[in-house]
Each structure stands twice: as structure tokens, then as C-alpha cells.
Design brief:
Length: 293
């Protein structure tokens, strides 16, 4: 009964959102827009795979529940930027979910489809295998990074119980970025021996500074092995990213909105950085160091 009530509540919520969401022109895409559309494509793919395997309960769970946390993050990102132009994007997302829902709850799906302003039947519309927007691997990596930083900040504040006056983030210097990608390639090739990886990094002039911080390899290897295989492959395909630029441009408004403080971002190699507790040296790729005062 509890499960049935849960599904009923989800359907009612979706139906209400269909009434509120209006079709508007989709604006030039921001990073969070590219991400949510990429996540939507993953959702459609997962639902299709479950249906192909006749795992219908699993497919329905994907449609109703798997997307919630991602959508909440997207809305949080948009709100922090004070955006007012996302109605068309939300309409596109909701339309795709309704089409996925149609085989499972045809009557309510048709009602939702009509509320979204469509004249034809949902059951006669194409399956949303693509949202007509290119899948963006970089946006997946970017939003994963931003979410992990916010999670880390929240965990620090939970433990220290301080009210932040200043938040500083330190990103890894360039050689660590190159070392990370080399370690990642080793992992994808099946090589996880720390000693072997260290030797290969020292032999490369671009990463020979690893001899100053051999623990970096073990920590980075653990970081990579703790992540889903799909995320690892995505990072390999994207290559090196400019963490300092991403964090400065995309996280500042979110930090201001959530904690009402300004965000400072330094590279570990920045000679002018504010680093009273020598935190910067602990920065790793996708694991920036954080100082909260």
C-alpha cells in the first residue's frame, strides 16, 4: 500500500507540474542546461534498457524516482543565478518523462500530455531516445565536481558547527592534472599497481614532480577506483579541465546563495594565494582543498 501511495503521489505531482509548466523557447544553453539534458538522455537510455529486459518495475522506478535529485540540483543552480528563462527547458524535460510514462500509465499520461499543450496523442508520439540536444560529457564532469564541493562544504560545516565568514577553494596545480589523467588511463587499461604507476610518472618530465608527493598516486588511485566506471570513462574522454575557471564561474553564485559569503578560488601554484593553514598542497583533481573561516 505504501508503494502504491508513493506512485500515486508522484503521478499527482507530475500532473500538477504539467499544468504549471508552459512551452517557451529554449534559450542559449548554460552549463547546467547541457547537464540536465545529458542526464535526461541517460534516463531515457536506462528506461529503454529496462524495458528491453522486461524489467518493467525497474523502468517505472527510473521514470518516477531516479531523476528527482538531479532536477532539484538543476533548479538550485538556476535559482542561484536568478534565471527566469528555464520554463522551456522544464517543459522539454517534463514532456520526455510523460512520454516514457505512457506505456505504464496511458490514461494519466494522455491527460498530462494534453496539459502540456499537445494536440496529438502521447501514445502516437516518438519515444524520447534523444532530446535533440547533443550529449555533453564535460557538463557531467563539471556538475559532478560542483556537487561534490558543496557536499564537502556541508560536511565540514556539520562537523565544525561554525558560521562561515569566508570560503576558499584551492585547485590542483597543472602537473597534478596531467598525472591524474595518466593514472586514470592506467586504471582503464587495468593497471592499478602504485609502484608501477609512480615509476611511469617520474619517467615523464611533465609529471616527474610526483616524486615530491608520492602519496598523491595512492590517494588519486583510491579516488578513481571509488567512482562508477561510467564516470571514469567520461573523464577520460573529456580530458583535462580548468577547475579554477569552472569553480570561479559556476560555484560563486551558489555559495553566495547557500551560505551568504563570497567564494575565493586559488590555484595551488598561485604565489599570491591566501593559505594560512597550508591547505592548497592537499588539492587533487576533482578533490580541491577547502578552507572555511
Amino acid at each position: 500500500i505504501e508503494a502504491i501511495n508513493g506512485i500515486k503521489n508522484k503521478l499527482e505531482s507530475m500532473c500538477e507540474n504539467c499544468t504549471k509548466t508552459k512551452a517557451q523557447e529554449i534559450p542559449e544553453l548554460e552549463p547546467e542546461d547541457k547537464w540536465i539534458f545529458s542526464v535526461l538522455q541517460n534516463l531515457a537510455s536506462n528506461v529503454s534498457q529496462s524495458m528491453d529486459k522486461i524489467r518493467l518495475r525497474e523502468a517505472l522506478h527510473h521514470i518516477l524516482y531516479d531523476f528527482d535529485s538531479e532536477l532539484q540540483w538543476y533548479l538550485k543552480r538556476a535559482k542561484s543565478k536568478q534565471r527566469t528563462n528555464i520554463s522551456g527547458i522544464l517543459h522539454k524535460i517534463l514532456s520526455s518523462r510523460v512520454l516514457m510514462l505512457s506505456p505504464f500509465a496511458p490514461h494519466i499520461a494522455e491527460e498530462m500530455w494534453e496539459k502540456l499543450g499537445n494536440s496529438e496523442l502521447a501514445s502516437k508520439s516518438a519515444w524520447p531516445s534523444s532530446v535533440e540536444i547533443e550529449f555533453d560529457s564535460k557538463s557531467i564532469q563539471t556538475e559532478t565536481l560542483l556537487k561534490s564541493i558543496i557536499d564537502d562544504i556541508n560536511n565540514i560545516l556539520k562537523v565544525t558547527k561554525i558560521s562561515p565568514k569566508k570560503i576558499i577553494i584551492y585547485t590542483a596545480e597543472q602537473w597534478k592534472s596531467k598525472a591524474y589523467n595518466s593514472i586514470l588511463k592506467n586504471v582503464l587499461d587495468g593497471q592499478t599497481n602504485v609502484g608501477t604507476i609512480i615509476k611511469s610518472l617520474i619517467a615523464d618530465k611533465e609529471t616527474e614532480l610526483i616524486k615530491k608527493d608520492p602519496d598523491f598516486v595512492k590517494k588519486t588511485l583510491n579516488d578513481i577506483l571509488s567512482e562508477p566506471a561510467e564516470l571514469r570513462k567520461g573523464r577520460m574522454s573529456v580530458g583535462q579541465i580548468d577547475e579554477r575557471e569552472i569553480i570561479s564561474s559556476e560555484l560563486s553564485s551558489l555559495v553566495k546563495n547557500d551560505y551568504n559569503v563570497e567564494l575565493d578560488v586559488f590555484s595551488e601554484s598561485d604565489s599570491e594565494k591566501y593559505d594560512p593553514k597550508n591547505k592548497a598542497k592537499t588539492a587533487r583533481l576533482f578533490k580541491p582543498a577547502i578552507l572555511i573561516e
